[in-house]
Amino acid sequence: MIINTNIGSANAARILAESSSALTKSLKRLSTGSRIASIADDSAGSAVAFKFSADIRRLKASDANLGNMISYSQTQDGYMEKVAGALERMSELAMLSTDETKSDTDRNLYQKEFSELKSFLRDVGSKSFNGTALFSSNNLSVAVGTNTNGSAIKLAVYGADLNATNYKNVSMTLAADVTGNTVANVSTKEDAAYALGKIQTAIGSLATDRAQVGANLSRLESEKSSIATLRDNLSAARSRIVDVDVAEESANFAKQQILVQSGTAMLAQANILPQSALRLIS
User: Fold this and answer.
1) What is the distance between the alpha carbons of residues 274 and 223, in angstroms, rounded to a whole number?
2) Of the candidates 72, 99, 95, 60, the residue with the CA atom closest to the CA atom of residue 228
3) Phi and psi, residue 154, nearest 5°
4) Which residue, 47, 58, 191, 252, has most beta carbons within 10 Å?
5) What pTM, to 2 d.p., does this model score?
């Protein structure tokens, strides 16, 4: 029996310190919801989780970009639907103006509405979405991800140029004649017949453009759905690395609490043991 070196007390103190540290770590995991209380807990897992987090944030940004481009294309189609209605009415007015029983005075009445619809077509051609032209000869692109070499993966979006020749043939405001001018009017029977052909060409072009915009929307929405699926899967993978299992950690927390309490009690007992030596010398 010795007094100066209390091995039992030292061992009890060491074990109590370890249990206290484990209890603190368990408490931190439960309070933060993270399995990795410090980088030392899982350094490799932390590195992988960090890369997953960066990927997830990029995908969220791509999702936002796609959402904006979908809104852009939907706005395009909304205006083009109105253009379709205008061209249909202009075609009707042109056909009415070819009627042999109509006088030029009658045709001038048709021309008034026809001119307003031409102005509408011209104005639509200059519309923009947040400063970006809705109808131009330039296609747009949206970044939807990155290649393995770090370069951006871009998805092209059709420009649907309403300022192209087929539309200008209908929407320009200069006076028309039947000798080669490309501007449509219905103020005479001959002009109306000429305009009718130009309008039909524009209707065909519009049908093609709307089909392309519809294809854009379908592709964009499919890409958006794909990105959402990938983001969810990456989030699940990251969760398995960093998120704490509350049920499991709660059991561990209870265990460490008991160990700290028993360790504290045993340390107190170990500190009392040397007192037994007094009985031998009293």
Assistant:
1) 75
2) 60
3) -115, 145
4) 191
5) 0.77
